[in-house]
Amino acid sequence: MTGPGVLPAQQIRALIEAGAIGLSAPLDDGQVQPASLDLRLGDVAYRMRASFLAGAGATVAERLADFEMHRIDLTGGAVLEKGCVYVVPLMERLALPEGVAAVANAKSSTGRLDLLTRAITDGGVEFDRIRPGYHGPLYAEICPRSFSVLVRPGQRLNQIRFRRGQAVLDDAELTALHRAVGLVAGGPAVISEGLGFSVDLKPETGDLVGYRAKPHSGVIDLDRIGGHDPAEFWEEIRTDRGRIILDPGAFYILVSRESVHIPPDYAAEMAPYLAMVGEFRVHYAGFFDPGFGHDAAGGTGSRGVLEVRCHEAPFVLEHGQVVGRLVYERMAARPETLYGAGIASNYQGQGLKLSKHFRAP
Fold first, then answer.
1. CATH class of 5-164
2. pTM across the whole model
3. Over the stretch 70-117, which tens digit does the pLDDT of each residue have?
4. Buried/exposed code over 58-97 (b: 16+ C-beta within 10 A; e: otherwise)
């Protein structure tokens, strides 16, 4: 075994071979990513009265019995409705070694659909955080916020990252890494408990700065890649003033001013800049894999897409306002394949971009 850090693809495969990650169906092509494993929906969804955590000493199955309203067979496809809460058992389960913990997060395309998807576990007291040595099943809690979605077994809405020990870079280490390889371009390196990034509301060409989800749209079929008309689901946000006003309850797709670089020996996770940076929350999909924005992997100029939801009050968002931060971690070893290098990576080299389910505008 190697030292502390995020486990790369080859070590994730070793965990599968050793039985530490159990599969109810064979691995799909591309399911193992450079620094994470995609998780697959099982064949039933439970419609819940409310979101929940199992809590210490309790199992998710016990909580399902407490809060289940009805169950839905996903085998032939089923619609998960906007504003409802569902729990879906996943095809993967864990028998982690002591000293190996895990963290889950929504995949990029899931977050861009405002599809709140979080992992829950037996005995869990936090969403998306899985304790070292956990043995048990995995579940996805799914709450469509803006659009109803058509789902089927085997679809991959969230992903899991494994880590051994603690390998987060402190600000001094992050500053040194930026000086050595350049972690951002297009704006200053704001380093404070991670690498800060800001919103771009002054595009180099045109005045399109983002998209706002329309409130009364149709169903998105998650298997129809490139098959939906953006105009049916999104309103374009344009400005030539370098600012927009976020509406309470609305969901926006924006983009970072800076292009981001994740070197091959590192991984990153997006986190809020401050607990109360303003009346809005940035991001659902928080994993950045090794090689994102890396020149040699075809990622020059890759910017971070921001999934923004405004809370109680209208909020003025200004160009260049710092809205989030990237927390960098060392990899336990360099992955055998980098993001965007010979694998299906939908967002390498990206700018402002909707999820892969929509036709290019």
1. mainly beta
2. 0.92
3. 999 999 999 999 999 999 999 999 999 999 999 999 998 999 999 999
4. ebbeebbeeeeeeebebeeebebebebbbbbbbbbbbebe
